[in-house]
Specification:
Helix 1 (6-14) packs antiparallel against helix 9, helix 2 crosses helix 9 and helix 4 (73-82) runs antiparallel to helix 5. Helix content is 52%, strand content 10%. The protein is an alpha/beta fold. The protein is globular, with a radius of gyration of 18 Å. It has two domains: 6-62 and 98-211, 3-Layer(aba) Sandwich (Rossmann fold); 68-96. Strands 2-1-3-4-5 form a five-stranded parallel β-sheet, with helices on both faces.
Length: 212
């Protein structure tokens, strides 16, 4: 049964043109929740403005977004036992994290792959190296046709990762992803604006569901 997330309902109220894809956004959110419940991680890739979105999204997942995400008592105690004088400091400042890796950040690896293997393989090689069954790849492409993103999604499927495509109205990405959130617009700038709002709604739903 599809989970109804209040954050996504609010998103659609603010962006009525997203109403036709509300269920897809809910499904994408549930795919990520399932991944994290099972102890998995999220990999994120995209080009240009979507690459910047990868960094932004990982920043919201790896630390508190709307809430501080305090550590559970057991982890605070473990820090007190293991740290040398700084246990309380660490326990008060560390925040709960949703494990996520932006594949656009690995500059040395990206340039090595581009030079030695092929520039269209920069994300596929990382998915092959980092990905494990049960993880999720978030593949972002406003056109839906970015070849390096498409190749990464195909590797993810072969390795039994979940695949969440975030794109626009058209493109091949929806053919290789388990769930596709396709903004029903054509202008890149408008699609990217909607993508940002979608990321925020999804991150809010993840945080509330997984951290309370």
């Amino acid at each position: 049964m599809l989970t109804i997330h209040s954050e996504i309902e609010s998103l659609v109220e603010n962006y009525p043109d997203l109403k036709p894809i509300q269920d897809d956004i809910q499904r994408g959110c549930d795919l990520l929740i399932g991944c994290y419940h099972a102890g998995g991680k999220v990999l994120v890739c995209g080009n240009g403005g979507s690459a910047a979105d990868c960094e932004h999204l990982v920043g919201e997942l790896m630390k508190g977004y709307l809430a501080a995400r305090p550590l559970p008592v057991s982890q605070r105690a473990a820090l007190a036992d293991a740290a040398i004088g700084d246990g309380a400091y660490l326990a008060d400042r560390l925040q709960g994290a949703l494990s996520a890796i932006s594949l656009v950040s690995q500059v040395g690896l990206i340039t090595a792959v581009a030079n030695d293997i092929g520039p269209d393989m920069i994300f596929a090689q990382q998915v092959y190296g980092y990905g494990r069954a049960g993880d999720v790849l978030i593949a972002i492409s406003t056109s839906g046709n970015s070849r390096n993103v498409l190749l990464a999604a195909q590797v993810a499927r072969a390795l039994k990762l979940g695949t969440l495509g975030i794109t626009g109205r058209r493109g091949a990405l929806r053919e290789v992803c388990d769930v596709t959130i396709g903004v029903p617009r054509d202008l890149t700038a408008v699609i990217q604006e909607r993508h940002l709002a979608i990321y925020h709604a999804v991150c809010g739903a993840l945080e509330r569901t997984l951290f309370g």
